[in-house]
Write a structure and sequence with these properties.
Blueprint lengths: L2 E2 L10 H12 L10 H20 L7 E4 L2 H16 L5 E5 L4 H12 L3 E5 L9 H7 L4 E7 L11 H11 L4 E5 L18 E5 L10 E5 L25 H16 L1 H22 L4 E2 L8 E5 L5 H9 L3 E2 L13 H5 L4 H5 L1 E5 L6 H18 L2
Helix pairs in contact: 1-7, 2-7, 3-4, 5-6, 8-12, 9-12
This protein binds pyridoxal-5'-phosphate.
Length: about 375
């Protein structure tokens, strides 16, 4: 039996999402741009799907654009916003704990002449709204930050950040990377004064390769991808119908059981904390995760890569830092000021609603066995 505890990297597709994809691939397979009945049916599925995703984002359907995932949404938002507002200023504020999609988009913008301030976290992995506000300048045209950190599970104060930005600089745009927050926390861009917001399907039980960008009504960015004018001219290319139908199906399922899912995952996290406290008392928690589905801990003396192999041999799957970092030292843990030994032994455990207490038991047994071997 597999114990998959790496759901912040990606997760299992929900049966309802898989069924929706198969139906659209094998039965309702028309192109929404076609004028015949098959096309009209496909266009209806497209708009029903958009409405389901919009509801998950507390948005109007007209404010939602399908993309290939979190990375494309973030790139579209950041490059689009920077280019749109470059006449007004060349300063961007973000944080030092962003996903590589944001970090590397900002690096590229620096190469294009923009100045970027990377606000650092405290030792717990928290970003203070006050520090974000202090970083905002008269020539700030864009602020981008995540809602939930993917490595340590901290929640960023997006409502305060949005409020401060609009008070200081009303024409600047605010982008939120909500990829790890969807169906863990309510997503309310309007309450956060947020103009642009990115989400991804594969973190919530939809397949990989589908995401969405929320763009507040009247926020017009230049399209990033041009072609046949799909997605109201904003993102050309024949719509990925199976993927977006699956994304919508996953949104419907997750919305209906969000409270139960969050409570269940909280129980798993509490159980993990209790078991680690009793059986691995030398463990150190990295960051004070605010959400239950992402936790990060170091076992001094146990290199993460080696521990991953020990766990893998027992069919337990977690990650060392972020999956995107592929063995590179975690920029997030480094920004939090953790020492190298602690970073080198860091493990990220991330839960999905399908996980069970038995998965946690298997993890703890594997960690105990690994620690016995490696800490000798
Ligand atoms: N932002 C965060 C916080 C993430 O965790 C991820 C995925 O790991 C992304 C963005 C990128 O999303 P995608 O894999 O859909 O491109």
């Amino acid at each position: 039996m597999i114990h998959y505890l790496d759901n912040a990297a990606t997760s299992r597709v929900l049966p309802e999402a898989a069924e929706a994809a198969v139906r659209v691939m094998c039965e309702d397979f028309g192109n929404p741009s076609s004028l015949h009945k098959m096309g009209i049916d496909a266009a209806r599925i497209l708009e029903d799907s958009r409405a389901a995703v919009a509801q998950a984002l507390s948005a109007q359907p007209a404010e939602v654009y399908f993309t290939s995932g979190g990375t494309e949404s973030i790139n579209t938002a950041l490059f689009g916003a920077a280019r749109k507002n470059r006449h007004a200023g060349r300063h961007i504020v973000t944080t030092a704990i962003e996903h590589a999609a944001t970090r590397n988009a900002c690096r590229r913008l620096e190469g294009e002449g923009f100045a970027v301030t990377y606000v650092r976290p405290d030792a717990d992995g928290h970003i203070l709204a006050e520090e974000m506000e202090n970083a905002m300048r008269e020539d700030t045209i864009l602020v981008s930050c995540m809602l939930v950190n993917n490595e340590v599970g901290t929640v960023l104060p997006v409502a305060e950040i949005g409020r401060a930005l609009k008070r200081k600089n009303p024409s600047a745009l605010f982008h939120v990377d909500a990829v790890q927050g969807l169906f863990r926390l309510p997503i309310t861009p309007k309450k956060w004064n947020c103009d642009l917001l990115s989400v991804s399907g594969h973190k919530i039980g939809a397949p990989k390769g589908i995401g969405a960008l929320y763009m507040k009504r009247d926020t017009r960015l230049a399209p990033y991808i041009v072609g046949g004018g799909q997605e109201r001219g904003f993102r050309s290319g024949t719509e990925p119908m199976p993927l977006l139908a699956a994304f919508a199906a996953a949104c419907r399922v997750r919305a209906a059981r969000m409270d139960e899912d969050v409570a269940h995952v909280q129980r798993l996290k509490d159980y993990l904390a209790e078991q680690v406290g009793r059986r691995l008392p030398f463990a150190q928690w990295n960051g004070r995760g605010d959400v239950p589905h992402v936790v990060n801990l170091s076992l001094p003396g146990c290199k993460s890569e080696v521990m991953l192999r020990v766990l893998e041999s027992r069919d337990v799957f977690v990650s060392a830092g972020s999956a995107c970092s592929k063995g590179k030292e975690s920029a997030v843990l480094r920004a939090m000021g953790l020492d190298k030994k602690r970073i080198d032994s860091a493990l990220r455990v991330s839960f999905a609603p399908f996980n069970t207490l038995e998965d946690v038991d298997a993890l703890i047994a594997g960690l105990e066995a690994g620690a016995r071997m490696l800490r000798r």
